[in-house]
Amino acid sequence: MIDQQIRAFARSLRRASGYVRLYGFQHPLCTDAVDEAARAATELIGDRPGLLIGIVDDTLFIDGEPSGLISLQFNGFLREVLAAGIETLIMTPPVDPDELGQIARLIAGDIDAAPIGRSLRVNAVDLVRGPHDGSPAARLRRSYSHSLDALRSFGSSVESGSAASLDETASVVKNLLEQSLANPAAALLLTTVKSHHEYTFYHSVNTSILSLGLAGLVGISERDQVVLGIGAMLHDIGKIGVSRAVLQHPGRLDAAQWEEVRRHPQLGAEAILAAAAPGEELAAVVAFEHHARFDGSGYPRLVYHDGTHHHHGPGHPLHFYSRLVAVADTYDAITTRRSYRRAEPPSRALQVLVSEAGTSYDPDFVLAFASMMGIYPPGSFLRLASGEIVMVTRPSDDPTVLPTAVVVRDRAGSEVAAPEPVPYADDDIVEQVAASALGIQPAQVLERLPVDG
Length: 453
Hints:
- This protein is α+β, with helices and mostly antiparallel strands.
- It has 3 domains: 2-122, no CATH class; 136-373, Hypothetical protein af1432 (Orthogonal Bundle); 381-446, no CATH class.
- The chain contains 19 helices and 11 strands.
- The chain has helices spanning 2-23, 28-45, 68-73, 75-83, 97-108, 136-160, 167-182, 184-190, 199-217, 222-233, 244-247, 255-262, 264-275, 282-289, 320-334, 346-355, 363-373, 435-438, 442-446; strands spanning 51-56, 59-62, 65-67, 88-91, 120-122, 303-305, 310-312, 381-384, 389-394, 404-409, 429-433.
- Helix 13 packs antiparallel against helix 14.
- The two termini are 29 Å apart.
């Protein structure tokens, strides 16, 4: 319950600061968002006499307790809060909307100095910076967070037209690869982290993690995986050049909007080529080809030259990096909620890949990906005949053996504080349950697991 309250407060304060930037502090949308944030803050405090919120490095702390997954989901907003000079915030109930509005203005850059009020105090205490959490989940979370930072940095350079380099992207890909090799099950589970607010960046990191896992499975060397991982990380960077209104359009795109979207592979490839060092050029190929489809029916329509003739479309293979990344890209896109459709369960994403293997997707990579994820991919929730809800945490290498799962809700429907592995048989599975129906996020469970890879 506390996680939901933290999310509600962070989401409404982020919305309020965003409205300040767009419309000014006096706009009704801003006022409503601030009022909502004040109510959420008071509810978060609950029966406590007060509450201390702090940010240390990549992590949000609530009364000294870390909130790992929420820190990752609101990574960009926490960066904005720190940039505004806010490291700690003490809240005393009831939270005054006017005072919280001043905080929203500070985050938005509308005022320079932190306000001092009765219900809110900024930077009144210093948080002690202890040693980093060395758990697999925390190490992966930091790698993920640094990847988001690298994407924002590269995207900002592309958007502003300033000189860019792939050095930072290469560094975070190497770190993701290292963490994924050490903890493959945890890495797959972490790809269930989603953000509607910064969809492209989170989707790009997830696609990179999934692509690295698949690349290792099919025998691509670690050295070559780095370039492939850069391409996967930046495959959608061209969307920087697509208007937000088009990207978040809730219905069917018209011809002009669709044409704008179809330009992002070329825009991304051009940006990567401009920043690439020798040996990194293949990353641009991935960005350029990731929507072209295995049979050539996608976009852009590619032309190949075999030395004597030019050929269009089907029958002329994409680079195998592009074919591999396209599988990971589609899987993550289908399992993520968008403005125009709901998120599908992992099993449905696999069904789509399998049904379009040989046309849209390389059948060999689809087969390998399905093998890597298993019939019930990590993050899948299953209802057992006993009434318990379990979550798959690790796929099985043996198709005759069910994947490892932990109980997340007991027979009475209560959430389990410390999930433990549970033995179960195929006949015990009643149905697969959507995460949205349970109100549980798979990566949230990862924070409570003794994952050892």
